[in-house]
Amino acid sequence: MTDETKRHADQVNDTVETDAVKTPEAGAAAAEGVAETFADPNPAVSEPDPLELARAEAADFRDRYLRLAAEMDNLRRRTERDVKDAKSYSVAGFARDMLAVSDNLRRALEAVSTEAREGADTGLKTLIEGVELTERSMLSALERHGVKKIEPEGQKFDPNFHQAMFEIPNPDVPNNTVVQVVQAGFTIGERVLRPAMVGVAKGGPKTAAADSETPAA
Predict the structure, then answer these.
(1) Are strands 185-188 and 147-150 parallel, antiparallel or unpaired?
(2) Which end of the chain has fewer beta carbons closer than 10 Å to its terminal beta carbon, N or C?
């Protein structure tokens, strides 16, 4: 302690002793002031436990890892689904155009009546057979690329795969049953490439099993 500091402390002590003589309250206040004057300006602060810090940091890293792993798994699944869809449906536009060509071939074949086929000469018969072969080859090529023909005749009308063009009164067939196919429909993978245009029955029984049921005795 320097001489100047010592002299200052002595003066403070004298002031405290003088104030204490005057009144006890003044002496206590002066003593408190002295304690504050010479108190340590940098009191000791308790440091956090290193083990707790390490545990909190490890928990944070684990949470980040789990989140990143979940995001990567979702990304992998989306990528696989996109690649699969690209392989399955990349030829959808081309297949739809080829179906228009196939429809024209079918119309050309239907335009030739049975009588004309039977009385046709060798050249016409060869032409008809060539058109039929071309149609079959085209549909077979489309099927190898996932395009399949819908066979709706005799099935219950399904708006997801069929497009109703008209109704045919027929009491012998259950209602909403496809009884005629105007234009064939096709699917590609699990999607409808083109719905089948059909005619459905109207006026028949709703279910075939309902007529056979009899009440119990």
Answers:
(1) antiparallel
(2) C
Annotate 115-163 with DSSP letters as a single string.
Answer: HHHHT--HHHHHHHHHHHHHHHHHHHHHHHTTEEEE--TTSBP-TTTEE
pLDDT digits (tens, 9 = 90+) for 40-75: 555 555 677 888 888 889 999 999 999 999 999 999
CB atoms within 10 A of CB 19: 18
Local confidence band at 167 (pLDDT 50, 70, 90 cut-offs): very high
As to burial, measured by CB atoms within 10 angstroms (0-12 exposed, 13-18 middle, 19+ buried), residue 175 is middle
| Alpha-carbon torsion (187, 193, 199, 203), positive or negative | positive
Distances (CA, A) of 151 to 77, 116, 156: 33, 28, 11
Return phi, psi of residue 195, to 5°: -70, 150
Amino acid identity of residue 168, one-letter, is I
Over 50: is that where the pLDDT of 35 sits?
Answer: yes
Q: What is the spatial distance between Cα 109 and Cα 134, in angstroms, rounded to a whole number?
A: 11
Tokens of 10: 């002595």
Both tokens of 111, joined, read: 């335009």
Which residue type does 150 have?
I
